[in-house]
Records
---
Amino acid sequence: MGRADEVRARAKRYAERAEAMRADHGSVDAVYVIADRDSEVGGGLMAGALAYRIFIWLLPFSLVVVAGIGIAASTSESPEGAAKSLGLHGVVASSVSQAARGSSRWYALLIGVPILLWATRSLLKALVVVHRLVWGDLRRTVPKPTLGATLLFLAMLVGYFAILELARAVGSWTDSITLRLLVAFLGLVPWWLVLSMRLPHRGVAWSGLVPGAILMAVGLELLSSIGIFLIAPRVESSQRAYGALGLAAALLFGLYLVSRLVVASAVVNVTVWERRSAA
């Protein structure tokens, strides 16, 4: 109890010191504003809903990839190996690869394509709602999840995995982790910047969306490393101990972190833009 009281007292002193620094340091005040805005818009709740949408999207996407291209179905990787080679998406791909083998592959492809389009449209609608709430952009001219917008969004999602694969290939060819991270960062910043410009943002210029794109790229790289070194080694043990529930829990936890990052990037963008406008 004495140690716990000491920790609480120390945390209280740090909080009071940080609160006192808000008037003299704009960066400290910005952190408080970002935290307050995230709490006001319900960032945790929105991230949870978004993680569920991404999970639903990953299932038909993995089914189509496995059935149509045979990336995971043609290998005998364990869930841990699949997670290391394809990231969190590999966990889902390995779980549906058995269903996509043999004669069922054509049926899986025929069923998976329309479901994938529906899930992509649903995920796009969720992203639009999240950015409307964060930005307070309630105009009627917000992007509509039309068929064209859905296909373009699907292409951009595929582009994300292409960027990661390119970075992995460069890292394997040069045997340099630093170069792999640099290639992924340089690819993810413009990727998220382009995607953010097609989401509600009060008509802010592209330069106003750069802070969120940088945060998103750095965060995705960090989460990818966490997934490879921390989550992936425990996927197989979780599946062995808890079955499909352990696999789904590990995947949903990773997707929640990604969704939290999506909300945070929008909150950072709107906070930085408002402070610049006020200045």
Note: The two ends are 47 Å apart (CA to CA).
---
Amino acid sequence: MTHFGMISGPQIFIIVSIIFFGFLPSLIALIDILRNKFEGNNKIIWVLVVLFFHFIGAILYFVIGRKQRIKAAIS
């Protein structure tokens, strides 16, 4: 008799992998945002975009937001 509610080992691995790789870009984007300087309220806006839109927000940040960072002056 098969129980459709039961999850086996390989299925758990797949689910955990999807969750991990789904949150990894968001985590990397948040770390990058918090470590760099932005003009005005751009930092707060990007943090909110990544937090509310997770994977899509992280992709948007990597495509658009990284260009908005303030470059550190080399002295």
Note: The first helix runs from residue 9 to 35.
---
Amino acid sequence: MDLKNEIKSLIAKKGLTLKSVCQAIEQKSNKNFSPNNITNKFKRGTIKYKEVNDILEVLDYHIEFVKNK
């Protein structure tokens, strides 16, 4: 599964929409964080680590790097 689908799945599991997640991020950071921009970044593969981290923070998740065995 790709990043876009993983995040969409997490958003759905929380019973939220991308729009509501983006609004929560905008309220926290006072920066423009529109669903259209994020969707386009997913399509182009240009989404930044910080943006993914902000989305996951709203969803109560975090990124973890684990070394392969």
Note: The first helix runs from residue 3 to 13.
---
Amino acid sequence: MQSGKLEFTCENFLIDEMVNEVINTMQMTTPRQRILKEGQTRVYVYGDKERTSQIVINLLSNAIKYSPQADHILVRMIDGDNTIAIAVQDYGIGIARENQPKIFERFYRVDGTRQETYPGLGLGLHIAAEIARRQNGRISVESEEGKGSIFYLELPVVHNFTL
């Protein structure tokens, strides 16, 4: 990625279709938690559908991993003026305020005893943020320790779908 060799195959695609596909696939990996979806945007985005689905898979995987006691994860589709946001909300361990700006950095891992419980390389969110950035989008987080997190993927809208 750093050498700029991460290739993108861009096209217009319905964001709701892609999110539904990812939710259906990810639901098969977690029998304990239901992945619920709220909202429908019916908008197209221009980008790499596979890379964008990679972002949503990463956000859902993290939500599943970091909220093992929760019975559900919520995915909300938020239609803005010229953007679409996909919000992935978990009800898990949350992220301390001082760590939130760092979690998108390469190899960043939160120190402490919970790191042993939730292993990883610290690359997933960095890669997801970079994929979003290269599609003129962004990822952000709202979180409170002990109450969970909401990750937002925002992408520019190409146009609305009408019947």
Note: The chain has one domain: 10-160.
